[in-house]
Amino acid sequence: MSDAGDLILVIDDEPQLLRFLGAALKSHGYRVLTATNAEEGERLALSHIPAAILLDLGLPDRDGLEVVGALRSWSDIPIIVISARGKEDDKVMALESGANDYLTKPFGTRELIARIRVALRNRIGVPASVTLYESGEIRVDLEGHVVTRRGEIIHLTPNEFKLLVVLLRHPGKVLTHNQLLKEVWGSANLQQTHYLRVYMNQLRHKLEDDPTRPRYLQTELGVGYRLVEG
Amino acid sequence: MQTRPDPEQLLKRVQDEEARFQRARLKVFFGAAPGVGKTYAMLQEAHHKKAEGIDVVVGVAETHRRAETMALLEGLEVLPRRSGMYRGVDLEEFDLDGALARRPGLILVDELAHTNTPGSRHPKRWQDVMELLDAGIDVATTVNVQHLESLREIVAQITGVVVNERIPDTVLERSDEMELVDISVEELQGRLQEGKIYVPDQARHAIQRFFRKGNLLALRELALRRTADLVDADMRRYRDAEGIEDTWAAGQRLLVGITPRLSSETLIREARRMSEALGAAWIAVFVDEGNRLSDNERERLESHLRLVERLGGEGVALPGHGTLAEDLLSLARNRNVTQILIGQSNRSAWLERLRGGLLFELSRQAGRIHVHVIPVEQRETEAAPSKPLAPWWPGFPTLGLCGLYVGLATAVGLLASSRIELTDIVMLFTIPILLGGIRHGRAAALAASVLSVLAFDFFFVPPRFTFAVGDVRHLGTFAIMLGMGLVIGNLTERLRQQAIRAQHRELRTLALYRLGESLVQAGDQTSTVASAVRAVEAQFQTQVTFYLAGETGALESVDDLSHPVVDETDRSVAQWAFDHGQVAGQGTGVLPASKALFLPLRGAKGMLGVMALKSGEGPLWQEPDQRHLLESFANQTAMALERAALSAEAQSTRLKAEREELRSTLLSSISHDLRTPLAGITGAVTTLIEDPGVLSDLERTALMGSIQDEAFRMHRLVSNLLDLTRLESGAVALHREWVPAEEVVGSALSHLGRPGEGRDIQVSLERPGLLLHCDSILLEQVVINLVENALKFSPVEQPVEVRVFATGKATTIMVCDRGPGIPEGFESKIFDKLFRLPGRTPGSGSGAGLGLAICQGIVQAHGGKIQVTNRPDGGAQFVVFIPFEGEPPAIPAEEDPGE
User: Fold this and answer.
1) CB < 8 Å to B777, chain A
2) Distance (Å, whole) CA B12 – CA B17
3) What angle do CA B182, B188, B189 make, to 5 degrees?
4) Residue B764's closest chain A neighbor by CA?
5) At what angle do helices B430-440 and B442-455 cross, to 10 degrees?
6) Nearest CB partner across the interface for A157, out of B745, B747, B894
7) Residue A80, Cα to own-chain centre: how many angstroms?
8) φ, ψ at B758 (rounded to 5°)
9) A132-227 CATH
């Protein structure tokens, strides 16, 4: 297993979940540290500096969002938030306060490991020096502003291109509507979510085989979008 | 020979007996004159009762400071009098509320005929006594014979004194025991001389005259006879009970015709006496022939009708249809009347002969009904009979019109005079007379006939163009023309009056009909009250408030129009009317000083409330028929209120039952649906744990796969339950945005999980980028549920289709399968919560019946519609309409530097 030996800190107050997460992570070669409340979690994070943190938002002593903010104040350790369905607003807030990703309960081991891998790999995002991006049939030349699919040049409008670039810089990470709108249209247009939706749709039609079953540009309804590496 | 008593009578007697047994007892000490010792006898009785252990209280005892009477008060509890100021004079009065609060076993209330001071609850003391009896308290009281309503005339004739303090005879009849306190006339006169009888100084002269021997003898005889009558009535009750045959025909019924005249009072009292002698029920009827009543007459008529009721008869005001005799007889036949009483006519003999007297007509048509004529004294106060409605002077405009008619007839006559005879011209002049009569009434007919005579004389009768008459025979023609005018006038007048009365009746019926209609439409209590308020206020031109009994039975005002009709003091009148189920307030016997009229609203199961009407300027309800209408209104409203209450009760019961049923169905369904996957998981897990190593790898994988599937199924069920709860609690706030259809459908397909794996789901969009105006997360749930449903019921190899297209102001999503389709009749039921198609048992692949209910909830929250139909070539198709308002927002255009 890759990333073997990386230390993962799990902060959750439910023993069953801790047991399941511990077993699943260990079976994939990670080392595991567990905490059952926010205070203990923050202390362990500070003393052990884990490679990634799995954080449940419903902790007994403090609001999970505060914990995200506190951790972010001193480190860039990837944080994956665990939350229940129907709490899309919490997810958005966690992501905007610095969480890297989220998992909705219940989730399977496969999904968990995949997210952790993505988070560990893109710990700091794609460096600005990288100008050529390739994924599956898509190739993007950031300097030359050229996008090709199966070798064919795809014409993108400036906004479509900008949008694609923002997503490319954070592969695998969910970017919220606000984050994307701010990057592409500027902070004045944060309310115009439909711009984003329409352009995203156009991008899908240009880049995907079947826009209703996207391979690259995935929708996280009510939260944002993520670019998945093909 | 013993005969079987009439069952109905028997039943009534049993009911009466029961009522007599349960109700409080009234004992009356009856005397011929003041001073016979009634109070004394009553107090003696009180001591006896007290000795028997009965809780006796003296409410009022007028001892008139007589020593022996005063002495009897010793040892008895005396209720304090209520003092009240009236016109600056401090008056003490019997304390009714105090007595009701004290609730003794027996209370003594002296002087039954006493008139209470103004401002008391009831104007008369006998009404206080009735209320005490109604409250279940036994009463002993005293009364003198001259105070009896039915004997008033006779007493006045004997003694020359008109007694103002009177009590209805029914009160005496209500008594359970009557004791005649009798002493000889000589003894009474002796007591007067000895000063043993209380005589106020100012009345000494009158009293002396009252106590003349002859008077006392007559009064004593009256008292004895009255007592005998009442004992007789008791006897009769006894005889009925024992089945002893009556000496008179059963079912006698009396009808007395009354008028607003003063003399009718005598008639009423006579009817009462006769009816009692016959043991018959009696009806007093006033036939309204359309004559206008003066205020005086109307008042007198009302007091007559009230008198009738006080005397135990039934008062009826009847609108006339035909002649007076016909109307009386038709009522008499309807009510099985056996005897009719009418007053002696005061019409002059020639008029009587001319118009056919009432008596003549009655006796001619009466058949088996006996007709009695009662001599009545005509008094100077009632001058002429009531004025006819139509005046004899038509007024100038009508006169002008009559002139025009006659002028036209004259013109035609002149044009044709050379060709027609004089007699034909006479016929011509009947036209203006008829026209005048029909169009303008009696006066016009007369005016037209006079004008016609003049015109005929002047223009046609030789010598023409003078008023001179050549031939004396023409004078006869003139007389005939005038007579014709008179007859036509009277005929048309009567027709007109009947038409007017018919119109009045129709208006009444219409008013009631309208009320009924609006009450039927009103569903609940609030709208019923509002309808009734509107109807009553419109009909009676006054303000109305409703008091309704609340949950606790206390009376609460329904101030939906927030105009206080009554003040706080009048609230107690409302309470009284409610407690006693009787009309109270202005113009009634109870608290007449009140500024409003209170009508109880009586339902089948008890009192519902009170309707209060403010008396404005000349309230309209004081006329008998209006009052009748008002009572009909109150009855209808009460019925509607009861209906509303019943239907509300039924509805809440039904809702409760439904909720209960739903809850238990939900519980049993959920527990089943939760246990099924749990059983699967537990079974697979225990098999794996306890496996001694015999399972193949394939088998182990299969078991683990089933655990995963069951866990997913449980997850879906719990999510659905949560969604449904949130939808039903209204906790879901729609967050509508413009979202491309690809995004919603795509996200839904990506969340299908295992059921979607390896299945063919074909998505077709009308065009790329079709926008939906929706809460994307909720709508995704709809698509997930519909697609899952379709996958579940379709054969694995068959595709499921999702189509999205625009339809006017809505976007439509269709999910089509190739399953068995929906059986006819279940197209809308299928969206009900917990509904499962018959034959598809839980666990056989179907869910808990929540998925479609959630879809419907979400779609309806969007203002949209969800339907299901069967596809013509097999399978079902679910159609979701999501409407949108306004236009999809425009996206700012951008130039494409890429080209």
Assistant:
1) 88, 221-222
2) 8
3) 155
4) A212
5) 160
6) B894
7) 8
8) 75, 10
9) 1.10.10.10
- The pTM of this model reads 0.47
Could A158 and B894 be called an inter-chain contact, meaning their C-beta atoms sit closer than 8 Å? yes
Q: Which CATH superfamily is domain A7-121 in?
A: Response regulator (3.40.50.2300)
> Which residue in this structure is represented by tokens 């039915």?
B150
Please tell me which of the candidates B769, B780, B896 has its beta carbon nearest to residue A221.
B780
CA contacts within 13 A on the Cβ side of B727: 24
Cβ within 8 Å of A, B 680-709: 708
Structural element, H or E, at residue B608: strand B606-614
Residues of A in contact with B739 (CB under 8 A): 194, 197
Name the residue of chain B whose CA is nearest to A146's CA: B898
What contacts B560, CB < 8 A, 6 or more positions away?
Answer: B526, B529, B530, B533
DSSP per-residue string spanning B309-347: HHTT-EEEEEE--S-HHHHHHHHHHHTT--EEEEEPP-S
How crowded is residue A206: how many other Cβ atoms within 10 Å of its Cβ? 16
Q: What is the DSSP code string of B343-396?
A: EPP-S-HHHHHHH--HHHHHHHH-TTSEEEEE-----TTS-SPPPPSS-S---H
Q: What value of ipTM does the predicted structure carry? A: 0.89
Q: For the CA atoms of chain B, what is the radius of gyration? A: 45
What distances in angstroms separate CA B626 from CA B288, B534, B574, B582, one per listed residue? 14, 17, 21, 18
Which residues of chain A form CATH 1.10.10.10?
A: 132-227
Residue that the structure tokens 């009692």 belong to: B276
Local confidence pLDDT in tens for the 230 residues of chain A: 445 588 999 999 888 889 889 999 999 999 999 999 999 999 999 999 999 999 998 888 888 889 999 999 998 899 999 987 667 888 899 999 999 999 888 888 888 998 998 888 876 566 667 788 888 888 999 888 899 999 899 999 999 999 999 998 888 889 999 999 999 988 888 888 888 999 999 999 999 999 999 999 999 988 999 998 76
The set of residues, in sequence order, having a beta carbon less than 8 Å from that of B15 and lying 6+ positions away, is none
List CB contacts (< 8 A) between B750 and chain A. 213, 218-219
Distance from CA of A215 to the nearest CA of B (A): 11
Is B756 touching A (CB cutoff 8 A)?
Answer: no
Which of B723, B891, B898 is opposite residue A195, by nearest beta carbon? B891
pLDDT grade for B22, boundaries at 50, 70 and 90: low
Distances (CA, A) of B682 to B677, B685, B706, B707, B844: 8, 5, 11, 8, 19
Q: Which chain A residues have a beta carbon less than 8 Å from that of B743? A: 197, 200-201, 219, 221
Judge contact between A54 and A11, C-beta under 8 A.
yes
A221–B747 C-beta distance less than 8 A: yes
**Which residues in chain B touch residue A197, judged by CB atoms under 8 angstroms apart?**
737-740, 743
* Residue B679: exposure state from Cβ atoms within 10 A (0-12, 13-18, ≥19): exposed
A81 touches chain B (CB under 8 A): no
B764 vs A: CB within 8 A: no
